[in-house]
Structure formats: structure tokens, C-alpha cells
Amino acid sequence: GEGVFQAIDDTRPNGSIFIITNVRAGDMDDPNIQFGWTMGGQPGVIQAPNNDYTIVGKQAAEIAKSFTKDWHPRFKPLFDEMDESEAAFWKITCSTPSGVPEWPNEPRVTVIGDAAHSMTPAGGIGANTAVQDSALLGRLLREAGGYKPGVTAAYEKEMRVYGSKAVHQSYSTASVAFGVSINEETSPVV
After folding, report:
1. Is the dihedral of CA 173, 178, 184, 190 positive or negative?
2. CB within 8 Å of 82: residues ≥ 6 apart
3. Dihedral sign, Cα of residue 166, residue 86, residue 4, residue 11
4. pLDDT of residue 89
5. Residue 105: its pLDDT value, please?
6. How far is CA 137 from CA 89, 143, 163, in A?
7. Can you state the percent helix, strand and coil of the chain, rounding each to 5?
8. How confident is the model at residue 115, as a pLDDT?
9. Helices 126-144 and 151-178, axial angle in degrees (round to 10)
10. How far is Cα 71 from Cα 67, in angstroms, rounded to an integer?
11. Fewest C-beta atoms under 10 Å: which of 1, 79, 149, 190?
12. What are phi and psi of 138, to 5 degrees?
């Protein structure tokens, strides 16, 4: 087949992990192809050593290898033969599913993209929403003939509407697919 594939390991008592890759069957025997993949898990399943979400290289690669040591032999080369220098561990955060919060407007400063509305990669809409932010802000600045009082407030008001919808969509997809759950009473993000 063609496209992006997901493999899920639901054998762990504390939750599932998964990989997403675009490996195609005919590519497996071509030594010139470097494969890319992303591993994820339900919250709390994959823990960074000492809560250090900045680790890269061999240490990050060893974490992936430890989770996949018992996987089917057809998957093993993805991990056993990875370029360890390219491995990275990172934590994904998501804004509250109830929407983009309001903050006091600073007339000459605003935020776009993840700074305004971070979301999981579920649904693949984060970058699109960031581009929508920049297009909206650019249009408002152009229509005003450059910076004018009220431009950033107008941008933030409109951005909160579609940004909140995008965060909710991403969160809903992540909840179903990966078991992500945010209790807004105790934590504004995961």
C-alpha cells in the first residue's frame, strides 16, 4: 500500500504505544532508503529519564529500542538500524480542549501557532492553523496600512474562534486514538 501507516502495541498494562511511518513493503530491502518514524504513547506510558524531555541521540534511541525489543522481526530493522544521532525525545503539549484562553491584549505584540494554541499532531492541523494565523494577521495589517491600534486585538478575537475549533478537533482525535485526557480542573495542558 501507499501512505502513512500506524502500528499499535497494546500489550502493556499501563497503556499502548504506537509508531507512525510511511515504510512500504518494497522499500524494506533497499539499503539506500532511510526510514523515518515517530513513536508515541498514551500519557504516562513513555517516560523521559528524570523528566528530561530534551534528550537526543543514543539515549533517546535506546528508549525506543527498549519498547520494541519484543516486536515482530519485520519491524525490528526500523529500530535496530536507526541513525541514533537523529533520535529525539520530546513531549507534546495540548491547549485546553475548551478553547484558546483569553489574555490581556498587548497592542504591539501577539502570538501565532503553538504559542497561541498548541495541539497534538492528531489530525495534522497544527501547522495549517499556524499558517491561517499568519495569513489573518498579515491581512489585517495590510488592510490597516500597517500597524494601527486594535489590529492585534482583532486578530486575537478571530483567531480564538478557529483556533479553539482546531484545538478541540485535535484533542478529540487524540483522545480516541491515543487515550489523551486533560482534566481542566487540575491541569491546563498535558
Report:
1. negative
2. 61, 64
3. negative
4. 83
5. 96
6. 33, 10, 13
7. 40, 10, 50
8. 92
9. 170
10. 8
11. 1
12. -60, -45
Cell numbers standing for residue 2: 501507499
Given a cut of 70, the residues of the chain with pLDDT beneath it are 1-3, 187-190
pLDDT for 112 equals: 96
Alpha carbon 81 to its chain centroid, in Å, reads 25
Interior/surface letters 44-75, b for 16+ CB within 10 angstroms, e for the rest: ebbeeeeeeeebeeeebbebbbebbeeeeeeb
Dihedral-angle region of residue 5 (phi above 0 means left; psi in -120 to 50 means alpha; beta otherwise): beta
CA dist 17 and 46 (Å) reads 8
pLDDT cut 70: percent of the chain above it: 95
pLDDT of residue 92: 75
β partners of residue 17: 9, 41
Place of cell 501512505: 3
The alpha carbon torsion through 111, 117, 122, 124 (nearest 10 deg) reads -30
Specify the pLDDT at position 187: 64
- Rounded Cα gap, residues 105 and 111, in angstroms: 10
Joined grid coordinates for residue 136: 489573518
